[in-house]
Design goal:
4 helices; alpha+beta; three-stranded mixed beta sheet; single chain; three-stranded antiparallel beta sheet
């Protein structure tokens, strides 16, 4: 008997998502390890970037639902990761999120854009800042209530 109340197909889909997310996390870890061992600074930077991109896509996979990708849940999961990227410097990543699901095709692109935006804000946007805070807002706005993502350093 299936443990998932939605039936065997939903249970299988959940298992596939879980395995895919785990595989992506393994690839991210391998890329990070290779990057840390690289003697060339540019190669090291590129490998670490690749590890972060793969990890971001892996985190998305855990947020897949029948309605699409739970993007607010993805941002909430990534906030502690972004906080740790500062290597000992305190940074506050504040998230204000409405529950929003985004279709699969757009979610991975948006996740990679947000990941790059956060990397740039953490690397360049907080230099010399008295308050080391990045705010991320995800809300539905306008007459058609389109999702809007705002990040401010």
């Amino acid at each position: 008997m299936s443990e998932n109340p939605e039936g065997p197909a939903a249970e299988l889909a959940s298992e596939v998502r879980h395995r895919t997310a785990n595989t992506l996390q393994l690839l991210a870890t391998l890329a990070r390890m290779r990057g840390q061992k690289a003697s060339d600074a540019e190669l090291r930077r590129q490998m670490i970037w690749m590890a972060e991109a793969i990890g971001a896509v892996g985190s998305l996979e855990r947020r897949r639902t029948p309605e699409g990708i739970d993007f607010s849940g993805y941002i909430d999961e990534m906030a502690p990761v972004w906080r740790r990227r500062q290597g000992g410097l305190a940074v506050d990543v504040v998230v204000r999120l409405e529950p929003i699901h985004i279709r699969d095709q757009a979610a991975s692109t948006l996740a990679l854009i947000l990941n790059e935006l956060m990397a740039n804000a953490l690397t360049h946007g907080l230099q010399g800042a008295a308050v080391r805070r990045i705010s991320i807002d995800l809300a539905r706005t306008g007459e058609v209530k389109s999702p809007q993502l705002t990040a401010e350093a």
